[in-house]
Amino acid sequence: MALRLFRTTGYSTLMMPGEARVAPHPARIALWASLWIGLACNVAVWRLFTGDVAGLRTALTSFAILAGGSGLLFSILGWRRTLKPTVTLALMVASLLACGLWSQQLPIDTLWQAPSRAVLPNWASFLRWQLLALIMVLGVVPIVTVWNMSMRRSQMRANMAGAFLAGLVLAAGIAFS
Predict the structure, then answer these.
(1) Which of 43, 79, 104, 157 has the most CB atoms in a 10 Å sphere around its CB?
(2) How far apart are CA 115 and CA 106, in angstroms?
(3) Domain limits at 107?
């Protein structure tokens, strides 16, 4: 028989394993997911590491557009029931687009110019282990991490502040492109 007084005072959470960690705020999950999409799923940033220093402006503007746009979306939908499915969908789309741009050697500007069907990888390229490993690293691992996190309740003020800041980053990226 459990001790009722001990459970109702709130001290029982101190004794339970795993409850000592504080659950992150949904705004923190939205920030990390938008940074992941802006940095890890950004082919222009990858090309900077291969020696294309001339594309620094393209990498910075594409980072601002991708991170700002996804941050705006995640902040608006930053509630307990909507954030995880939104992050899942956005991460899978971003990882597929990044794999398509990388495997077909297309510039990042084709995201805004070409239809999205031309950017996606073709089905024959899914048979290569490199593309599957890239999708695992860019999409599946962050999605599993997000779904294993517990979240606090979000507040409208924090969501709107995040949406405002993400909108500023998005506007700066569009202005400098």
Answers:
(1) 43
(2) 13
(3) 22-176
Instruction: Tell whether 76 is covered by a domain.
Output: yes
Q: Is the dihedral of CA 140, 144, 145, 147 positive or negative?
A: positive
Judge residue 141's burial from the number of C-beta atoms within 10 Å of its C-beta, 0-12 exposed, 13-18 middle, 19 or more buried: middle
Quick one: tokens of 99?
């794999």
What is the tens place of the pLDDT at every residue in 161-172? 999 999 999 999
Whether the full predicted model's pTM is greater than 0.85, yes or no, is: no
The two tokens of residue 112 are: 């805004």
Query: Does 91 map to a domain?
Result: yes
pLDDT tens-digit readout, 59-118: 899 999 999 999 999 999 988 889 999 999 999 999 988 888 888 777 777 777 766 666
Domain count, the chain: 1
Indicate whether 8 belongs to any domain.
Answer: no
For residue 167, the number of C-alpha atoms closer than 13 Å in the C-beta half-sphere is 8
Question: Residue 3 domain-assigned?
Answer: no
Q: Which helix (H) or strand (E) holds 35?
A: helix 26-39
Q: In whole angstroms, what is the distance from residue 167 CA to residue 65 CA?
A: 9
C-alpha to C-alpha distance for 160 and 72, rounded to whole angstroms: 9
* CA–CA dist 35, 7 (Å, integer): 40
